[in-house]
Each structure stands twice: as structure tokens, then as C-alpha cells.
């Protein structure tokens, strides 16, 4: 009976760890410049703050066709906001033509 209880506890614990990614955040370690061609393939971006679990401030940029996101310096935030809004309006205008 004790072996069954231990087995159930181990299974439940492993399921909890797997489902939450063990609470380990995915942080950028360093930032780099982003090539303009890659910016045009940007799907979305998120802000990483150094006040939480991560050590540096960064922008995590998700690029279409890349498996891992790019870590970009926060100085790019205004440019990315402008570009993302421009890309959205361009897509809306192109959808309206068809």
C-alpha cells in the first residue's frame, strides 16, 4: 500500500512540474541588434523586465520562421510599436482590396 501512495505522489508531482515548466522563466541573457529584414517578419514582441526573475531589460521579438525568439535592446521599443501598427494598417488595407 505504501508503494502505491508513493507512486501516485511521484506521478502527480511530475505532472505538476511538467505542466508549469517547473516555474523556470525563459529569460534573455544578452541583447543584440536586429536586422531590418527580420523586423518585417515580426509576429509579436514582449517586454522583459529586470525587476522580476530575469537579470536584464530586453524585448523578446518573435520572428516568423525562427524557432527561438530574438532578444533585442529596449531602445527598439518605440520603433517596434510604430512598425507593428504600420504593419497592421497595411494588412487591413490589403484585406479590404480583395
From TrEMBL:
SUPFAM superfamilies: Interleukin 8-like chemokines
Signal sequence interval, chain numbering: 1-22
Keyword list, A-Z: Cytokine, Signal
Pfam families named in the record: IL8
UniProt keyword rRNA-binding present: no
Domain of life: Eukaryota
Residue span(s) of domain Chemokine interleukin-8-like: 26-83
InterPro entries: Chemokine_IL8-like_dom, Interleukin_8-like_sf
Coiled-coil ranges per UniProt: none
Protein name: Chemokine interleukin-8-like domain-containing protein
Organism: Characodon lateralis
